[in-house]
TrEMBL record:
Its EC number is 2.3.1.259, 2.3.1.48. InterPro entries: Acyl_CoA_acyltransferase, GNAT_dom, NAA60-like. The gene is MCC1_1. One of its GO terms (molecular function) is protein N-terminal-methionine acetyltransferase activity. The lineage of its organism: Eukaryota, Viridiplantae, Streptophyta, Embryophyta, Tracheophyta. It is an enzyme of class 2 (transferase). Keywords: Acyltransferase, Chromatin regulator, Chromosome partition, Transferase. GO terms for biological process: chromosome segregation. This is N-alpha-acetyltransferase 60. PROSITE patterns: GNAT (PS51186).
Length: 259
């Protein structure tokens, strides 16, 4: 898939963007971009799982017009994994058929684009790749992700792409000794849908907003604390503005930088 974008003022050439799977040869660059963009550091196991496709699917963006032999070097990426709907924390936002325990979801882990390639539509194209992937899995019902509450550009992007913002989660992230809220976004595929009507969903969101989501958040945290999982308790994804610090993230925990 090609995306011929307008020239970015930060670039000295006209980019020609192509999307491809992430490969083992991308490991070093993938680690560098994550380090440049995200406020946490990831353990090497996370990157090994990405480049080797162990439980994670991924797509990378490259600029075929990039000079100096860098025309196959990653300038953007998205990573995701498939989870069982019954084991997810969004089961209450699905019209879920308990008799079909095999139904799945796709969870976006990280999304990032190098600074000089922002505002070229690359992030949108990467998200489209995830949606297309999920849509081609007959038993998949939705794509979902978390976004930190202050990242207005990311929130705008997901709404523009018809993701539904269905919940605000207080103190969802803990970064640099500070708690941050997150929004939960869902994009339904293959006939997946909310368990309530659009009007009922709006009423639910208004009620939750007025109450500060305290009850919902308490139930969610209690449920998450009880649930055994090989994934870390630090949540997988969200769209964070880049800051630097030295905290390391366990294997699959992830936060993402949208561009």
């Amino acid at each position: 898939m090609l995306d011929c974008a307008m020239q970015n003022l930060k670039l000295s050439h006209n980019p020609l963007i192509q999307y491809r799977p992430i490969r083992t040869s991308d490991l070093e660059v993938l680690q560098k971009i994550h380090g440049d963009l995200f406020p946490i550091r990831y353990e090497s196991e996370f990157f090994q799982n990405v480049v080797n496709g162990r439980g994670i699917v991924s797509w990378g963006a490259v600029d075929r017009n990039r000079p100096n032999g860098q025309n196959d070097e990653l300038i953007g990426f998205v990573t995701a994994r498939t989870v069982l709907a019954k084991d997810s924390d969004i089961e209450d936002f699905l019209r879920y058929d308990s008799s079909r325990s095999e139904q799945t979801l796709v969870y976006i882990l990280t999304l990032g684009v190098a600074d000089s390639y922002r505002n070229l539509g690359i992030a949108s194209s990467l998200i489209h790749e995830v949606i297309k992937y999920a849509s081609n899995i007959p038993i998949c019902r939705a794509v979902y992700l978390h976004v930190i509450s202050y990242n207005n550009p990311a929130i705008y992007l997901y709404k523009k792409m018809y993701f539904q913002c269905v919940r605000r989660l207080p103190a969802f992230y803990f970064i640099n000794g500070q708690h941050y809220d997150a929004y939960l976004f869902i994009y339904y595929v293959n006939g997946g849908r909310s368990p309530c009507s659009p009007l009922e969903l709006v009423k639910l969101l208004v009620t939750c907003a007025k109450s500060g989501f305290k009850t919902v958040a308490a139930k969610l945290w209690t449920k998450e604390e009880r649930k055994p999982s090989k994934w870390p308790k630090s949540k997988e994804s969200g769209s964070l503005l880049p800051t630097k610090h030295n905290r390391r993230m366990s294997t699959e925990g992830a936060v993402s930088q949208f561009v």
